[in-house]
Amino acid sequence: MDSPRQDADRGWRRRIVAGAAVALLATVVSGCSTAKTPEDTGPLATWNAAVAGRADEPANWVALGDSITEGQGASARSTRWMDRTLDGLRTEHPTDGVTGGAGYLPAQFAVYGPDSTWGDWATASTGSSQFDATVPDLGYRSVAMQAGASRTYPFTGTGIDIWWARYPGSGDFTYSVDGGAPETVATTGTASAGTTTRVDGLSSGEHSVTVTAVAPFSLLGFTIFDGDRDAGIHRYDSAHSGSTIATFTKDQEGFLTAMRRAAPDLITITLGGNDASKLSPEELGTQYVAFLKALAALPTKPSLLVMPHRRDRPPPSGRRPTRSARRDLAGWPRPPAGAE
Q1: Which of 61, 174, 252, 277 is the most exposed place for a label (fewest CB within 10 A)?
Q2: Mean pLDDT of all residues in the chain?
Q3: Distance between CA atoms of 104 and 87, rounded to whole angstroms?
Q4: pTM of the shown model
């Protein structure tokens, strides 16, 4: 039987996720404007403009962060706050003639059981392949596939982009849609994260793609489209359960290369909770600000929305300065004295 402390911790985590979802929906869904004016220079200006112009080109949202964003604890992928937020965005801001696909999903998630057992969403696999957290893709979640290995993934839509890494010594792979004739892709060449292979022309509905390694290579993930390749609101999942700021900066240029391919108009960020026990408030603030500056300098000049970890009970002794540092980074007003 769980102790009262364990029960309290689980309840606290659930409330954190619920609070994050409410904050995101309130700020991004209802708060974004569909009629940007030249005077719009606020923190969501880039996102507002992208949503307003979504009929002509996609508005791209990258959800970056730790377990709160990836959905550790959710019993199904569809119940994560980022999936519900995507549904809310598309309901609040529909695009004529566009259904909308699932967006970018990694080849394997970093979530774990017993709460979240949907991490490996391949429906069939053969040969040898391993989860790999070293490739600087969106979320550092790839699958290293050995020669002869194959993996089959289901998707609903009209097309996909297959994301893979190019590095010295990597080998070819093939892909087959719905059991059709395989197509070969060569992965050798200058190292690059987030290289994509485009597959279009499918009827809207349920499909499957089977990826087979001719020689060892890294499969990163898939962007799934359902009539929305060139319009609508796209979501790119760039989270990793247990991640810290250093997770995304250990090969920052490689990670930013993948981010440039996603071309974000909005980046939501939940980081810092796993750093708090390892860094001083000053170190956390310095690392966080440097990372935010790197994201802000992306060619699309994305809007940044930092979502501090929220608690409804007093934090452990000694953590108050860290909470304050995260609040400052996010631009949240400080509470009255004694209210922290």
Answers
A1: 277
A2: 83
A3: 15
A4: 0.82
